[in-house]
Structures are given as structure tokens and as C-alpha cells.
Amino acid sequence: MLINDKNIKMWSVIGQRATLGLTLYEIAKKNKNLMVLTSDVSTSAGLDRFRKNFTNQYVDVGIAEQNLIGIAAGMSSEGFDVITTTFSPFQILRCCEQIKVNISYMNIKVIMVGLASGVSLGTLGYTHCSIEDVSIARSIPNLDVICPSDGLETIKSLEHALISKNSSYIRLTGTSNNPIINEKDYKFEIGKGVIVRDQKEPDVIILASGSMVSHSTQASEILANNKIKCKVVNIHTLTKLDEELLIDIGKTGKLIVTVEEHSLIGGLFSLISEFYSKKNINIKILPIGHPHNYGKGGEYKYLLNKYGLDKLGISSKIIEEINI
Fold this sequence. Notes:
With 324 residues, the protein is α/β, with parallel strands linked by helices. Strands 2-1-3-4-6-5 form a six-stranded parallel beta sheet, sandwiched between helices. α1 packs parallel to α7, α3 runs parallel beside α5 and α8 crosses α12. The protein is globular.
């Protein structure tokens, strides 16, 4: 993919799902070994052009997600580079046993892309929201969980997942008009955090993933207006961790805030807490995420506001914590 200012802006406008389709289209031009499998989601995954131009590299199994994983595992065992995609709750929750047995247990590589994770499909209710997927996916061995922050990182996640030895679950969050986090090309590596806003001697360090990186960056500007210095780190990999970076952060003794569009059980907060506990680093962590319950559905921005996952909610919770 050609990375320039024009394309980065376009990927932001169309969102991660459409960017996925464009990326796979470009990859297929060079990789005739690529197979893309879907469960009746070609349009939702931005794959209509791919489907029309690479008919021999595209399989739609219909609304049969468990079969999707079985077929993907079979194709992978025959040497194909296999990518599956459907909406996040169906990609992970509905297929959990097939992912465990056919992919992880059999050590077969498949790249799974979960569309519209978090609460972006809130208007369809919580059957189509996905606030449990990270906790399930990261508990399965031999599976990298990657949650890109914007369109450019979606592309880099796919490219690196293809060359990785492990299977991957790529968790796409947000909608169209997805804010740009990475304005220029940069070195992406599975398991390496990216500092997106740096401050000398920060008062608080925010660790965020996916859609919450942009909201956290915007919240840091509100905090700066309240004389609170803030560092923001993009934790795009939710299995392998950047241990060196996290140890350095832990040594500062500053308040750490985890922000995720996911349940507070089993996701980023759990991951970071487990890491510092194992390293015997005693540090205060403020978790910000979706409560561990199913609320009523609603429009995306409404739900983010309701659960304090927008810039105002994040900054307010941090200010309240600091002023206690």
C-alpha cells in the first residue's frame, strides 16, 4: 500500500472496515496464495471489489461462521494464506470452540478479522456489540490479538499478521471518519507499544487500544488545559506486551489509566494489571472501559458518552481521580 498524506486521510474518512477491503485488494494483486473467506459480509467488510476481481481467491460460506473457521483451517493446512472476516461477536464468540480446536490446538495459522467490535453496532443491540472478544481471544494459545488505532495501523496489522508465525485476531473498532492517529509512516511491530503523545514528567500515563487511542489523545488536551500533563501510549497488541516500555512506565510511579472499548474484565485493564502483578511492581491503575453488563442498545456516540468513553468522560474520570 502506498502510504502518503492523501491515502492516510482517505483511510480515516472511510474507516477501518473499508480500509480492510482496500488492503486485501492490493495484497491479492501480488499474493496469489491469499484466500479471503467471509460469512455474507462482503459489503460490510469493504470486499465487493475484491469479490468481483479475485473470484478464485474469495469464498463466502454464508451465515455459517463455525463452518467458516473449519474451511479456513482446511485451506491453511493446504498452504494458503487465509483471512476470515465477519462481525466481531460472530467471529470470536460463536466460533470459540472451532478456533480452539481447528486453529490453535492444531497449530494452523489463520488471520481472523472481527468487524465493528466494541459498541459501534449499538443500534442493533448487544447481540451485535462485542465487549467480551478480547478476553476470550487472548485466553487461547498461539493467537495474537491486535487492535489497530486507525486506518494506517489496520494496514500494518494485516501485513505483519501475514508474515507472523502465529494466528491473529485483528479487532476493528470505530466507524467511518475514524480520527488519524498515525500521520506518517512508522515502524509497526506486533507487541510493541507506540507513544502517540509524549510529555516530560507526566502526571498521568494513559494506555489505550483501538478507537480509544483517539479519544484518549483528545482527553489529554482537556487535561493539559487543567494543568495535568499526560502521556498517551497505544497498546495495539493485547497478548504480547512491550515489557521494556511498561517497566519504564511503572518506575515513574505515576497514575496509569487504561482505556478500552471492552468490558473491564479480561481486556486491557486485566492484561496490564496481570503484568505489573507478575513483575511485583506496585502502581495505581485507573480502569476506564465498558461496565461488565449488557445495557440497552443505542447510537455509537450515545453509548460512548453514556459509559464515559469519549474525551469528556475520560478526562472527567481522570480529573476526579487526581483530585481525590
